[in-house]
Amino acid sequence: MIRLVASDIDGTIIGENNQITNQNQKAIYDMRKSHIDFTICTGKPYSMVKKFCEDLHASYGIFGNGNQIIDLKTGNEIFRKTLTQEEVSACMRLAKKEKLHIHFYTENEVITPKLMYMDLRNYILKDSIFHSDLNFKIVSDVEEYFEQNKPTVFKLIISSSSSLESLQEQINQKLEVTMYRVIKKKEYKDKMIHKEYEYLDITPSKTNKSEALAILSKYLEVSSDEIMAIGDNLNDIEMIRNSGIGVAVANSYDAVKAVATYTTVNSVENSGFAEAVYKYISF
């Protein structure tokens, strides 16, 4: 019996049209009515998707790819882990040497020199479907801003239109951080901002959606067999692999489909999320 459904947002619940379908909304409503805990599990910060979580009446939230867990029914923070000053500085030095685009997330802000890649995408989403209070601060030099202000950094993103494989290897050799290299090219092109690029998503060591889901399941006394995890992107692989039922929506990366219990027939725009919910949960 499924007691908790954990779902990614972008590409899983909402598509490139920035909309959530009526079928997906109904599936979430039916879960709530049946006392199944619906958990948002996203790489985005809590401040960006707070209202979205409220609108969907989500019970719990895993944010920043697992570096923050919040009980959305009470507002209490269950878990938090942030990057160290040394880790942020080291990553920035390596990225700056290659003249790459850097932006980072604090609890309530995105610090960037220019809205270009994922920061531009999230800026569009902030004002379209999320209606969030997340602030976007444009600074002339991100590294200098960081060194002068010493903000607490939840996540660091390095982006480029070229390959970041070499930089990923350099960072892995120097630091113990969690890092995803996501390639948004060809069939995975970012249609929202009409760009092909790739990015490194960097968070503290041993923080990912699966680890956070394990912390939450222990907190709720729910076994992994009672969890269904749904996603589409590379940062969803671990939670999909380690849950009782792991679902990849039809538009997922092939690597995600490879570890899933089930891949939906329908894409996100055609309510693949709802398809999975009604396949495995009887209301």
Describe, in short, the structure shown.
By secondary structure, this protein is of the alpha/beta class.
Features:
8-stranded mixed sheet, 6-stranded mixed sheet, 283 residues, alpha/beta, single chain, 35% helix, globular, 14 strands
Protein described:
The structure is a single chain. By secondary structure, the protein is of the alpha/beta class. 35% of the residues lie in helices and 24% in strands. Strand 4 (68-71) and strand 5 (76-80) form a beta hairpin. The chain has an eight-stranded mixed sheet, with helices on both faces. Helix 1 packs parallel to helix 10 (272-280) and helix 3 runs antiparallel to helix 6 (165-174). The mean pLDDT is 96. It starts with a strand and ends with a helix. It has helices at residues 22-33, 46-56, 85-97, 118-130, 142-149, 165-174, 209-220, 237-242, 254-259, 272-280; strands at residues 4-7, 37-41, 60-63, 68-71, 76-80, 101-105, 109-112, 135-138, 155-160, 177-184, 197-204, 227-231, 245-248, 262-263. The longest helix is centred in the N-terminal third of the chain and has 13 residues, at 85-97.
Structural class: alpha/beta
The main β sheet shows up as:
8 strands, mixed
What's the helix count?
10
Low-confidence stretches: none
Quick check: average pLDDT? 96
Percentage of residues in helical conformation: 25-40%
> What shape does the CA trace take?
globular
Element order, helices and strands? EHEHEEEHEEHEHEHEEHEHEHEH
Order of strands in the sheet with most strands: 5-4-3-2-1-12-13-14
Number of strands: 14
Rg value: 18 Å
